[in-house]
Design goal:
By secondary structure, the protein is mostly helical. The chain has seven helices and no strands. The protein has a domain of 82 residues: Orthogonal Bundle (434 Repressor (Amino-terminal Domain)).
């Protein structure tokens, strides 16, 4: 029973809701803007984003992807987005034997060895 309570507690800490992630990104962008001593209107102008959109983003975390990337470019953090959904998957520890058995090896390209053996 205690082990189950610990697992539930750990899972609660490890996973964030979409809203928590969205608000966290917005607050980090705002902190970066303030650290650069840049007013909202200046950032919006330099990024080509409407001032009202920037205000909504900093307040609610809601913004279009194009606007977010434009803001990131001005705030010099665009490279961070290049790492999203990269090809390498994070190392995940299987939680059960079934999960371990479901792990597939990554597919590899054919080497073309058959064609070489035939003299093609």
């Amino acid at each position: 029973m205690v082990l189950l309570a610990i697992e539930v507690f750990i899972l609660t800490i490890a996973f964030k809701t979409i809203e928590e992630v969205r608000i966290g990104i917005a607050s980090r962008f705002k902190a970066r803007r303030l650290a650069m001593n840049m007013p909202q209107r200046e950032l919006a102008s330099r990024a080509g984003v409407a001032w009202s959109s920037l205000k909504r983003f900093e307040r609610e975390g809601l913004v279009s992807l194009d606007s977010l990337l434009s803001l990131a470019m001005v705030l010099d953090c665009l490279d961070d987005f290049d790492k999203l959904a990269s090809e390498s998957l994070p190392n995940q520890v299987p939680q059960s034997l079934d999960a371990l058995l479901e792990i597939r090896k990554p597919r590899r390209r054919a080497t073309g060895k058959q064609g070489r053996d035939r003299g093609i």
